């Protein structure tokens, strides 16, 4: 209902927007080409210091109104920008030189400054709209990043609808601190907390309490809409991101949404329709009367059960029945954008509705955005971005479990001859092979996350002083991110496993308010044409206020879900609050457009530190030297040869509350009690500090058609935060300490090319290769194991001096040894866009992750439950494979630590645009078909090599009966008015 | 350039003013902290610590009872999601007990968490100026008694591997004591508790101590525990004299005693050892020998009710559910008169007072629908009979494994699968090694 209303409002706003009038002087027509008269479609033609703009059509042609003696800037992605004095010409032909390295692209380098890529000292990845949403759109924003960022290890937690993805830039930067990057949308620091709905109260996956890190909630970054995004810049480490201070240790992802473009108001309506399919099913064991009798239970009863079921033809493949579905997806987006000299706007409204593979799961998202830019005077510019989001996901019950209730765990011990289907009255039989009947659980349970969110940002730019050589501006930027998240879990009392609790209902209410602002002064001083000094200084502040109230009710009155309709209720509340403040100064000098020197300092303090008054200082410095511009290398075979080096420091503030040893509340027969918590605080806890050094060389060949970017980085993290395990006799299970040092180093190689450029075919390609290695260089405490469900029995991460931070240790037959490492040997990806006859475009993204191990408990769980598809396969010893696998438990964990190499066709899209249409009010119609994650080549034995039972923290890659991942196919239809 | 310098100067001055005003420390918004309590705790703070301590003794109770019950071949713990109950605990194939695994780390840590709370209670009471000296003694006496009880349970698991008794300062833990030293330390902690409780004024309430929650009652509870420690120490005379200071009585109700109690209120706990009858998946069933070894007419057979379909896992099978805890709010005994009567029997038999011992044994037998003991009246036979009565009277309450170990009889326990082992003790958790 709400979604329909939003649509109506959207249309209303659309019709109310007055037609925007454009100043008219005289008309100029022209074409933009490259090479031998090959047209460049989509190039931007701008009047310099004016407001008029136009874009070229499929033939490279444009029409623009220009004042007399106008100067035009013509730019297109992948080409060098040109500036042309029009004079009195009425038609213009422009030939652009190639630039696959995008040297003209402007990249953010400070909180309020930017620099052309040509002079950039860091390898900053940029993802454009075609790559993000124009190939084969993913369900959520976070999934749309996969395979697209060189230097990143991106991993989906599970296939559950609504997202949940871990992004690690240049290795693990923290163990117990935040490993995830900071997301900044139009200057607003966006919250990415994952809030558990209390699933642990039912699954007991963690030892106690209503929530655990195994509840697989989605991260809140998933709420963003990819269609609204113009581009994403990724600052991968402290050397680029130091100026973001205490939030930058995991890197920074800067998202810029679309703004109003000058020219005729453009209206776009797009509709995607598609479906999902499971990527892989594991198969089930085919029983015989003999093998059935070996299952847990009385052999005679089991044989009879099998024979009865067999005689009636009632042997089922429950895995297929539950997962092998073809749910439907739909996505509708309407956007309008336009601008005149003073005001520009971008408005969009979108609605997405997707069912999940499993019945009664799914995701929907409704999103309204309005971005407005206005020039108050020649000196004052104001921009406002607002975004309202409503998203709702039904995620089912999956993952680890110690109560036999999640779908995967229940299936793992349920043979096909078990009778789970309901009778005519809808009563489900109890599953004799597990604590729950998964068909019943799916049909009756609920696990919903519902978010209402408002993100608003403003950007104010005032010219304070302007002279021939100097320009001083005040830039104020800030905003807030507010959301209400309701989580709802319902397990009615009729469920098989609710015999003790008589039903459980958990409702969580979370309110989060994050704010941030930056006030800065920026001065650009250009005493001569060969020297430019850019000075900026300012103050920043970030606050966060998170309040989560979770009520878990049991003994539910039949048919009721309100938490007061229950015999027993447990309430918990978690609040976190912080205030970080910083001061920064930065100086950038560009000499002869060839040498760029950058230096900056940031002073930071945080209410989360042990010493809240202390400012921590974070310096950064960078040098880039363009040998070609300097004249040291003549333009010839090599073009634009640039050497670059950057260094920076950043920190990661301790988790809220890590300085306290607190007492938890308990109740016994109505007497309130205080019982010491098992986490011991550290009153003088310090932030983790990251020092990153990066160096590289960039160059292009073949007249800008081939560009190379080679980068090496070395990142040292000192005083990394660790929850150590002190002797349990202290009364504490974990103790916060600044425990040691960690190192990540690696290389990133990028290649951009335009292998084919002909009249009817253009092929743009980029290939990236990257790898990372980590090492714990110092550890002041005993090795710490984390991220495991079975310890060394199944394989566990272990932080240990001298070893890779992500090593996996376990039993190896002789004792405990290293069995693997989550770090991939390397990763590679390639994105390609081939355009035929101007209007037909093929885009595809292939991603190869080589090496790296997961802890695959899913497969073993099926063996343990006696249902693995290859259980009865004969091994050389004559014993069934399942039995030999079982016999290894307790002495050898090699079977669970499994290599998760994959080659995945992440995205394939084919689009055709009709530009010559019989009706004039439609500019173009574009049709497309796309496949997302459709083809995967892997030997990995579980559902998906991309998996993380423990969510987005340090220990990803633990595979315990997740929601199976899906592949997507969709048809796209887009009208441009 | 002059202009710029001026602008930046102004900016910096305003920035520093702004930031001096902005220094924030929000404190802990979610919980009380140790630092808050140790300064000058009020009576209500201390009472909260008492209730938190009593509540905490229930945490992870199921792990302790499952450990002792499974290794003592009283019960099987079948779990679809946790193989280690039937592998490690029973020594299946070549599995052994590991100091890394939940069956030792979880209960061990839960007990020491309560010990920590007791130490915070002692420290807070000592630092408080808001209570009288007599009230202070009640808090410290209660804390020492519970601390001793928790240490004893951990010692039951790790036996000769010992425990740490001095753990007041987490930065400087005391040494690991061996079994004998540990028992002695526990006994003296109980004595200290008794001294403190004597003449004290109890100004706190307890949930699971019906009739034992005043100073006199807590002393009786304290002495009951001391009697249990005495029999572990083979200090038979000590056991008898402590029994007389406890709530022991041959003619008193067998269930008189102190309990872990459960409730459905907010933040309260449900009984973690309760599983409904005839469940699948998660099962706690009686070892088959429980029913085969029982004398005809013994009403304690009702502690293991027949299942509609037998439960099996990994080559183990049982047709009886454990039915000692019959609802999710059924209490779990800490120590009760039935055990005290059996301690009375044991101490007397050991001291050669066979008639007095027999009297206690017959008290138990007749209370459970059996006739009086008709076997030989030798010390050895009576000990066998006493152990049998302990087995059935204290079924699934965490005793049999400990009892057979005391008498060196672990080798008499049934081996269900070839290659299974009967463990003597748990290894220390890895963090203690």
UniProtKB/TrEMBL annotation, chain A:
What's the protein's topology in the membrane?
Answer: Multi-pass membrane protein
Q: Could you say which residues form the signal peptide?
A: none
Q: Which superkingdom does the taxonomy of this entry point to?
A: Bacteria
Q: Sorted alphabetically, which PROSITE patterns does this protein's record hold?
A: TONB_DEPENDENT_REC_3 (PS52016)
User: Where in the cell is the protein located?
Assistant: Cell outer membrane
Q: Which residues form the TonB-dependent receptor-like beta-barrel domain?
A: 397-778
Gene Ontology cellular component list: cell outer membrane
Question: Domain named TonB-dependent receptor plug: which ranges?
Answer: 118-252
Q: Name one Pfam family in it.
A: Plug
One biological process term from GO is: siderophore transmembrane transport
List UniProt keywords, sorted A-Z.
Cell outer membrane, Membrane, Receptor, Signal, TonB box, Transmembrane, Transmembrane beta strand, Transport
GO MF, one term, reads: siderophore uptake transmembrane transporter activity
User: What family is this protein classified in?
Assistant: Belongs to the TonB-dependent receptor family.
Q: Return the PANTHER family for the record.
A: HEMOGLOBIN AND HEMOGLOBIN-HAPTOGLOBIN-BINDING PROTEIN 1-RELATED, TONB-DEPENDENT OUTER MEMBRANE RECEPTOR
Q: What is this protein called?
A: SusC/RagA family TonB-linked outer membrane protein
Automatic annotation (TrEMBL), chain B:
Record-annotated RagB/SusD domain positions: 319-408
Name the principal localization, coarsely classed. Answer: membrane
Pfam families reported for this sequence = SusD_RagB
Q: Which UniProt keywords apply?
A: Cell outer membrane, Membrane, Signal
Task: Identify the GO cellular component terms for this protein.
Answer: cell outer membrane
Q: Which domain of life is it from?
A: Bacteria
Hey, which family's this protein in? Answer: Belongs to the SusD family.
Q: What is this protein called?
A: RagB/SusD family nutrient uptake outer membrane protein
Q: Where does this protein come from, organism-wise? A: Hufsiella arboris
């Amino acid at each position: 209902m709400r979604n329909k209303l939003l649509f109506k409002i959207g249309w209303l706003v659309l019709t109310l927007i007055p037609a925007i009038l454009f100043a008219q002087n005289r008309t100029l027509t022209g074409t933009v080409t490259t090479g031998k008269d090959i047209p460049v479609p989509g190039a931007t033609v701008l009047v310099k210091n004016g407001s008029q703009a136009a874009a070229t059509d499929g033939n490279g042609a444009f029409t623009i109104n220009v004042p007399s003696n106008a100067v035009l800037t013509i730019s297109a992605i992948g080409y060098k920008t040109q500036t042309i004095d029009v004079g009195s010409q009425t038609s213009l032909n422009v030939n652009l030189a190639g630039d696959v390295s995008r040297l003209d692209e402007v990249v953010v380098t400070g909180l309020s400054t930017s620099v052309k890529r040509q002079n950039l000292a860091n390898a900053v990845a940029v993802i454009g709209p075609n790559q993000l949403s124009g190939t084969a759109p993913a369900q959520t924003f976070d999934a749309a990043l996969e395979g697209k960022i060189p230097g990143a290890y991106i991993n989906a937690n599970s296939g559950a609808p609504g997202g949940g993805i871990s992004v690690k830039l240049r290795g693990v930067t923290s163990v117990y601190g935040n490993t995830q990057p900071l997301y900044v949308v139009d200057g607003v620091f966006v919250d990415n907390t994952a809030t558990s709905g209390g699933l642990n109260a039912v699954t007991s996956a963690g030892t106690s309490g209503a929530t655990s890190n195994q509840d697989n909630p989605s991260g809140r970054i998933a709420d963003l809409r990819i269609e609204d995004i113009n581009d994403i810049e990724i600052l991968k480490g402290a050397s680029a991101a130091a100026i973001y201070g205490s939030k930058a240790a995991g890197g920074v992802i800067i998202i810029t949404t679309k703004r109003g473009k000058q020219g005729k108001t453009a209206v776009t309506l797009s509709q995607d329709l598609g479906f999902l399919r499971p990527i892989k099913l594991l198969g089930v064991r085919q029983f015989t009367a003999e093998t059935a009798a070996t299952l847990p239970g009385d052999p005679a009863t089991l044989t009879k059960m099998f024979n009865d079921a067999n005689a009636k033809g009632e042997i089922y493949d429950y895995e297929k029945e539950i997962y092998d579905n073809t749910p439907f997806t739909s996505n509708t987006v309407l956007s309008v954008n336009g601008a005149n000299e003073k005001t520009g706007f971008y408005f969009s409204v979108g609605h997405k509705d997707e069912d999940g593979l499993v019945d009664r799961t799914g995701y929907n998202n409704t999103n309204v955005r309005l971005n407005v830019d206005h020039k108050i005077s020649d000196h004052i510019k104001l921009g406002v971005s607002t975004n309202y989001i409503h998203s709702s996901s039904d995620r089912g019950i999956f993952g680890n479990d110690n109560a036999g209730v999640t779908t995967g765990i229940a299936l793992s011990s349920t043979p096909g001859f078990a009778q789970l289907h309901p009778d005519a009255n809808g009563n489900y039989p109890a599953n004799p092979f597990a604590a729950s009947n998964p068909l019943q659980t799916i049909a009756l349970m609920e696990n919903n996350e519902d978010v209402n969110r408002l993100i608003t940002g403003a950007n104010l730019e005032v010219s304070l002083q302007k002279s021939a050589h100097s320009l001083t501006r005040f830039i104020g930027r800030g905003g807030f991110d507010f959301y209400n998240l309701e989580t709802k879990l319902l397990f009615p009392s009729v469920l098989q496993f609710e015999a003790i609790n008589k039903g459980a209902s958990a409702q969580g209410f979370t309110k989060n308010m994050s704010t941030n602002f930056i006030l800065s002064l920026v001065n650009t001083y250009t005493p001569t044409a060969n020297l430019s000094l850019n000075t900026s200084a300012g103050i920043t502040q970030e606050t966060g206020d998170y309040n989560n109230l979770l009520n878990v009710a049991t003994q539910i009155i039949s048919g009721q879900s309100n938490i007061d309709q229950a015999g027993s209720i447990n309430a918990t509340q978690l609040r976190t609050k912080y205030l970080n403040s910083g001061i920064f100064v930065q100086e950038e000098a560009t000499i002869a457009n060839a040498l760029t020197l950058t230096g900056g300092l940031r002073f930071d303090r945080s209410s989360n530190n042990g010493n809240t008054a202390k400012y921590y200082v974070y310096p950064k410095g960078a040098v880039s030297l363009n040998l070609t511009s300097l004249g040291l290398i003549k333009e010839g075979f090599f073009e634009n040869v640039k050497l670059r080096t950057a260094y920076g420091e950043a920190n990661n503030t301790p988790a809220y509350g890590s300085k306290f040893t607190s007492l938890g509340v308990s109740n016994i027969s109505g007497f309130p009690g205080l019982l010491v918590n098992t986490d011991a605080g550290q009153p003088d806890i310090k932030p983790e500090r990251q020092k990153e050094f990066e160096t590289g060389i960039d160059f292009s060949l073949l007249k800008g058609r081939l560009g190379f970017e080679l980068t090496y980085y070395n990142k040292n993290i000192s005083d990394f935060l660790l929850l150590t395990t002190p002797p349990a006799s202290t009364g504490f299970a974990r103790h916060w300490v600044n425990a040691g040092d960690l190192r990540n180093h690696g290389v990133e190689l990028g290649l951009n090319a335009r292998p084919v450029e002909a009249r009817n075919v253009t092929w743009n390609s980029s290939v990236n290769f990257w790898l990372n290695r980590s090492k714990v260089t110092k550890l002041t405490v005993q090795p710490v194991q984390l991220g495991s469900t079975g310890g060394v029995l199944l394989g566990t991460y272990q932080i240990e001096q001298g070893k890779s931070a992500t090593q996996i240790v376990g039993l190896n037959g002789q004792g405990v040894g290293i069995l693997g490492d989550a770090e991939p040997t390397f990763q590679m990806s390639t994105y390609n866009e081939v355009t035929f006859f101007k209007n037909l475009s093929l885009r595809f993204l292939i991603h190869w992750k080589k090496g790296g191990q997961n802890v695959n408990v899913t497969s073993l769980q099926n063996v343990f439950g006696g249902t693995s598809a290859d259980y009865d396969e004969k091994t050389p010893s004559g014993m069934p494979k399942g039995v030999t696998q079982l016999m290894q438990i307790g002495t050898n964990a090699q079977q669970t630590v499994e290599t998760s190499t994959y080659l995945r066709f992440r995205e394939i899209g084919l689009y055709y645009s009709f530009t010559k249409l019989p009706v004039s009010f439609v500019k173009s119609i574009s049709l497309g078909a796309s496949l997302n994650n459709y083809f995967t080549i892997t030997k990995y034995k579980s559902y998906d090599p991309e998996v993380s039972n423990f969510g987005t923290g340090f220990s990803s890659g633990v595979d315990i009966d997740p929601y199976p991942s899906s592949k997507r196919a969709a048809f796209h239809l887009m009208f441009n008015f | 350039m002059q202009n710029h310098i001026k602008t930046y100067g102004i900016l910096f001055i305003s920035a520093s003013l702004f930031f001096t005003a902005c220094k924030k420390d929000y404190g802990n918004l979610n919980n009380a902290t140790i630092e808050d309590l140790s300064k000058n705790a009020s009576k209500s703070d201390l009472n909260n610590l008492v209730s938190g301590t009593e509540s905490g003794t229930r945490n992870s109770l199921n792990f302790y009872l499952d450990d002792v019950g499974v290794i003592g071949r009283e019960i099987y713990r079948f779990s679809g999601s946790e193989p280690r109950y039937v592998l490690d605990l029973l020594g299946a194939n070549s599995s052994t007990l590991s100091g890394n695994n939940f069956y030792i780390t979880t209960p061990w840590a839960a007990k020491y968490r309560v010990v920590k709370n007791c130490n915070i209670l002692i420290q807070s009471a000592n630092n408080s100026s808001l209570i009288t000296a007599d009230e202070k003694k009640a808090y410290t006496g209660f804390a020492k008694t519970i601390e001793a009880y928790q240490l004893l349970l951990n010692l039951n698991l790790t036996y000769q591997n010992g425990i740490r008794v001095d753990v007041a300062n987490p930065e400087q833990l005391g040494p690991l004591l061996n079994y004998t030293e540990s028992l002695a330390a526990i006994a003296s902690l109980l004595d200290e508790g008794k001294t403190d409780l004597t003449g004290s004024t109890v100004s706190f309430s307890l949930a699971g101590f019906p009739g034992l929650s005043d100073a006199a009652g807590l002393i009786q509870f304290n002495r009951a525990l001391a009697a249990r420690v005495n029999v572990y120490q083979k200090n038979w005379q000590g056991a008898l004299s402590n029994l007389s200071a406890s709530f022991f009585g041959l003619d008193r109700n067998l269930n008189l005693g102190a309990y872990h109690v459960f409730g459905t209120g907010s933040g309260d706990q449900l009984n973690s050892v309760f599983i409904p009858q005839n469940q699948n998946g998660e099962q706690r069933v009686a070892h088959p020998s429980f029913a085969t070894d029982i004398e005809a007419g013994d009403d304690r057979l009702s502690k293991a009710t027949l299942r509609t379909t037998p439960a099996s896992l990994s080559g183990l099978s049982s047709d009886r559910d454990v039915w000692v805890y019959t609802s999710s709010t059924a209490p779990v005994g800490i120590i009760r008169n039935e055990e005290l009567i059996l301690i009375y029997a044991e101490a007397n038999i050991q001291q050669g007072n066979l008639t007095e011992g027999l009297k206690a044994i017959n008290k138990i037998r007749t209370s459970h629908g059996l006739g009086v003991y008709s076997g030989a009246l030798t010390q050895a036979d009576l000990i066998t009979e006493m152990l049998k009565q302990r087995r059935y009277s204290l079924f699934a309450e965490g005793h049999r494994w400990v009892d057979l170990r005391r008498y060196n009889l672990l080798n008499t326990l049934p081996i269900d699968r070839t290659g299974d082992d009967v463990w003597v003790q748990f290894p220390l958790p890895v963090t203690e090694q």
